[in-house]
Input
Amino acid sequence: MTPVVDIMNYAPLVAPGLSGPEFQYDEFQIMVTTTFKGMVRDGRLTTMWGREIPADGKVDTDPTLDVPAALAQLDAAGYEATTLCCMKMWSHDRHHKLIVDWPEEVVAEALPQGNGRLIGGAGYDPFHVSESLAKVETAVREWGFEYVYVHPMTFGVAPNDRRMYPLYAKCVELGVPVGFQVGHSAEVLPTEVGRPMLVDDVARDFPTLKINMSHTGWPWTGEFLSMLWRHPNVYGDISAYFASSLDPELVQFMDRQLRHKIMFGSNGLDLTRVREEVEDLPIKDTTKERVLGLNALEFLGRA
Output
């Protein structure tokens, strides 16, 4: 049986109450009327981790853990393991503060209960480099985290920005891979900094660092594929998209030249549907095995 490994999920999977307050901010409020409008029912928004909140997002943060429920979700959807990324998001245009800051401490508490099925993903704030690097080091060395995930475009920062380079050096030192979003953002955030081609500088300056470009790179799919093809340690994931909506060029490359480089991720969407849609793609069974799990295991150093 193919191991299914979700390279792109978040801390609210084990603590659903962490999610919700971000939807009170303009960036998320606009997204609810555009990209996510199909998730609003009768004036309430069901978040990707099952927490139902008012559409205005006026709820309190609750860090209470429910690891058994998270593992039950993985079992029901047929997953072997998933990441729990501690995302940080800055309000670039409106509020000029962190509007998402999912704490590593919550994930650290969950990991020992996960029997190896939960993968810690530390966050990073490029506006507070020293403090973030200290947290990353603690998360990896003391709490067993295996990954770092950044959302640089929310800060208006490109992957090749000088404020990202200390993180890359720290990840090389710690022997963990790094991931970040490329392409456009569903929220109203700076977009040009998300061009996948900007990863070229990073891959050349840090040739031993494993890099995951998350969320397909759309609308610059060609640049996304180019970086995966060009650099041995650059990978990419298809999270945040149902496979039926993927760019046909991406699916073609996934089944040929890049079958060892593209990874599966849910981004917190319906776990069963996102897996089934990959299984329904008109691609080779060996490709599905690579994409659904084997590539992520190799990327994380678990294979």
